Amino acid sequence: MDAEGHEVNPFAPDAAAAVSLATRHGRAGRAGKLVMTTYHVPDSREWTPVKVRGIAMENCPVFEGDGIRSGFSRMASGCQIPHHHHSSWVQVAVISGRMRVEQDGSPAQIIPAGGVYFVSPGEDHVETAEVETILLVTRGEDGNRPQSIAPA
Description:
Blueprint: H1 15-24, E1 48-52, E2 55-65, E3 68-75, E4 80-84, E5 90-96, E6 98-103, E7 109-112, E8 116-119, E9 125-129, E10 133-140
Antiparallel strand pairs: 1-2, 2-3, 3-10, 4-9, 5-8, 5-10, 6-7, 6-9
C-alpha cells in the first residue's frame, strides 16, 4: 500500500516504460500505441525486484486495462505474504512450484503447479511459497467484482 492506503500495483510499469518495453520487443504499433497481442515465454521474461506488502519478490507485468491487471510473480522458497486481504478479486495460477494458502477459518490448502486459486474481495489469507514458485496473478481493480465458479 502507498502512503495514502491505496494498494500498489507491482505489475504496472509507467506508460513510458510500457511503451519502451513493448518497443524493445517489437510490440509497439502505430503512433506508439501498444499492440494487445503479446507472447510471454519463460526465456523472455524481464523480472523486476519488487516488494509486495513489504516482502521481496520479482514481478514481470503482462497486462493492465479494462479493470484487470495480470503479471507473473516469482517467489523464493519459504517466501510468505503475511495475513492480508484485497479490495477486489484475485486469481492465482501456479505455473511452477507449490503454494500454501491459509484462509481464516479453513484448513490450509496446498496448490501445486497447474493449480489455481481464487480469492474474493475481503477474504483474509496468508500465502507461502513452499518451494521456489512462479505464479500468474490476475486481479480486478476496485468495483470489478466477478465471482468464481466452484469446480464440479
